[in-house]
Amino acid sequence: MKNVTDSFVYPGHWPSAGSFGFNTDILATNPINLSVVIGVLIFFGKGVLSDLLDNRKLRIVNTIRNSEELRERAVEQLEKARARLRKVEMEADQFRANGYSEIERDKLNFINSTYKTLEQLENYKNETIHFEQQRAINQVRQRVFQQALQGALGTLNSCLSNELHLRTINANIGMFGAMKEITD
């Protein structure tokens, strides 16, 4: 470090102005060059740097402002979306409740309809059974009556002779004649 300070303090160390050459002592020339460059940059670049920084500051401020506006719009949209979501959820709950009650109502209607249909089928079955019983009873009666009639005719035919048969017919005709005179 002593060499660097010596080069500033002792002017004899510097080469004379009449000669031109390269100073190869890096420690002696770098601080001088750097100070000259920095001085020129500060003097001339102060306005440019200030303008660049001001432009950068404006862009950052505009970006922040735009970001704030976008954030506010996003928050508004989020609130609107949340409100729509709440509304849709309420409607969905309402539809769900209505759907469940409608399903229960349809279920009860179906059960009642099925019960009525079963009652009707039971009534039809009972009517059919009653009808079939009456038909069977009537058929049995007809057969019994036919057999009894055939048996009575057979008995009458075997017991009655022609003469007895004619007297019975004449007696019946006489009875019918007397009945006719009474009614006239």
Automatic annotation (TrEMBL):
Record field: transmembrane: 32-49
Top-level taxon: Eukaryota
Molecular-function GO term, any one: proton-transporting ATP synthase activity, rotational mechanism
Coiled-coil segments: 64-98
Membrane association type: Single-pass membrane protein
Localization (cell): Membrane; Plastid, Chloroplast thylakoid membrane
Signal peptide: none
InterPro entries, A to Z: ATP_synth_b/b'su_bac/chlpt (IPR002146)
Keywords, alphabetical: ATP synthesis, CF(0), Chloroplast, Coiled coil, Hydrogen ion transport, Ion transport, Membrane, Plastid, Thylakoid, Transmembrane, Transmembrane helix, Transport
An annotated GO cellular component: chloroplast thylakoid membrane
Pfam families cross-referenced by the UniProt entry: ATP-synt_B (PF00430)
General remark: In plastids the F-type ATPase is also known as CF(1)CF(0).
Subunit structure: F-type ATPases have 2 components, F(1) - the catalytic core - and F(0) - the membrane proton channel. F(1) has five subunits: alpha(3), beta(3), gamma(1), delta(1), epsilon(1). F(0) has four main subunits: a(1), b(1), b'(1) and c(10-14). The alpha and beta chains form an alternating ring which encloses part of the gamma chain. F(1) is attached to F(0) by a central stalk formed by the gamma and epsilon chains, while a peripheral stalk is formed by the delta, b and b' chains.
Function, in words: Component of the F(0) channel, it forms part of the peripheral stalk, linking F(1) to F(0).
Family, per entry: Belongs to the ATPase B chain family.
Protein name per its UniProtKB record: ATP synthase subunit b, chloroplastic
Organism this protein belongs to: Rheum acuminatum
Name of the gene encoding the protein in the UniProt record: atpF
